[in-house]
Amino acid sequence: MGDYPIKSTRNPVELMDQIYGPALQHPELRDELYCQIMKQLTNNNNGLSVERGWQLLWLCCGLFPPSQALLKHTQRFLESRPREPLSAACLKRFQGMLRMEARTMAPHHVEVDAIQQNSSQIFHKVHFPDNTAEIYEVTSTTRIRDLCRSIASNLMLSSADGYSLFVKTTNKVVSMNEQQYFFDNLKELTDVPKKGKKTKEVTPAAVPYLVLFMRKLWFNVIPGKDLKADLMFHFPQELPKYLRGYHSLEKEDLIALAGLLFRVRVDADRSQFVMIPKMMKELVPADQHKIITYNKQAGITVDEAKVRFLKIISAWPTFGCAFFEVKQTSDRFYPNLITISISKQGVSLIDPKTKEVLVMHPFSKITNWSSGSTYFHMNIGNLGYKMDDLLNSYVNMYLHERTLPRTQQTLDLPCRNDSSKLQCNILKQFTFSKSNATPPP
């Protein structure tokens, strides 16, 4: 709290981990933490220390409540200091936490950045597949499923079903767990593993990330039914898969789709015909065929062209599939390189050259699967976690949406004095550095 000087400036988020981490792991330490903060706020004439103490208390009230023995004392402490700028916000968080489960992770840097600015409101940017983004208010106890519903409602989508939040880091995109608190799951996915250091302590580098909102499950997707969803999610998510050649299609569809995509690209500007690459002659008929197709679509808007594109590909069995290019070594009758697709029907193995479906396993026949950092039933590189997540999500929706008549059966998955002293010492040495953090992505 700035009471005692320290040799070097410490990273605020790292200090939060040290202050709140032990109490999150050992509930018996939570009262000790509340007591230490309130004690140091009592009869404290150091203005900076008091300000930081209330910031710590604000964070604490959004992580876990004290025990029943300390409950009334804590509430009385908050109610008796109405002139403090954060007292009302602390009391609101404190009372709200009494009805909720405790957090599992120390405060995320977005929470810390907000309270460093003495703001009790927390905002986070959410990105969409059409390259737009919006800012949403998120509390310390907002669950991911509730944020998804809020985003869907704000965008006026017909339904929030099938959509999910994702975290994109430098090397992967991971779906967030809708049951968890937003900041708990975000911290789990973006925290840098800390290595043990016997000598000089080094501040861990922040992991750059984006929070994405996308369609994850493709149930009851009918192009043209929800125009906002078609333009913001369905078209920009399906176009890359089409261009990568994952679908099997007839030449007539290829020509029609090429014309539609050209309409999307240039709208009504005929001078842009010179942009048609020469190499396209090897993939579709001569350029005049594309121009004929383009002329047939005269008068339609870019948005209408996108919807027509979706209506054509929605008739294909691979519409809405998630594709994974993998190497298999277990079956000599299959190519070494295959494509695995996961859709609302089940899991398919596809020959990437011929686009022939080698085998299709419906969800009703899938009884078990396993995955790790480098495998998913077979050696497939590092995509196992995404396939495992999609399977879990589709199977859960498959059962919960009454697709199957069967009822799903689910398996629901100590205080030491030295720890207390350590927390006390950290609190006394706690100091916020000047915030140079940029807004969240």
Number of domains: 4
CATH class of the largest domain: Mainly Alpha
* Main sheet makeup: 4 strands, antiparallel
Helical residue percent?
A: 40-55%
Instruction: Give me the Rg, rounded.
Output: 27 Å
Shape: elongated
Span between N and C termini? 29 Å
Poorly predicted segments: 197-203, 281-289, 406-417, 428-441
CATH homologous group name of the largest domain: MyTH4 domain
Average pLDDT taken over every residue: 82
What is the N-to-C succession of helices and strands?
HHHHHHEEHEEHEHHHHEEEEEEHH
Explain how this protein is built.
The chain is α+β, with helices and mostly antiparallel strands and 441 residues long. The chain folds into four domains: 12-106, Serine Threonine Protein Phosphatase 5, Tetratricopeptide repeat (Alpha Horseshoe), CATH 1.25.40; 123-215, Phosphatidylinositol 3-kinase Catalytic Subunit, Chain A, domain 1 (Ubiquitin-like (UB roll)); 227-313; 322-400, PH-domain like (Roll), CATH 2.30.29.30. The chain has 14 helices and eleven strands. It has helices at 12-25, 30-41, 47-61, 68-79, 87-97, 109-116, 144-154, 182-190, 227-243, 251-266, 287-296, 302-313, 384-400, 417-429, and strands at 123-127, 133-137, 163-168, 173-175, 210-215, 322-327, 337-342, 346-350, 357-362, 375-376, 378-379. α2 packs antiparallel against α3 (47-61).
Essential attributes:
441 residues; alpha+beta; Serine Threonine Protein Phosphatase 5, Tetratricopeptide repeat; Ubiquitin-like (UB roll); 4 domains; three-stranded antiparallel sheet; 12% strand; disordered C terminus
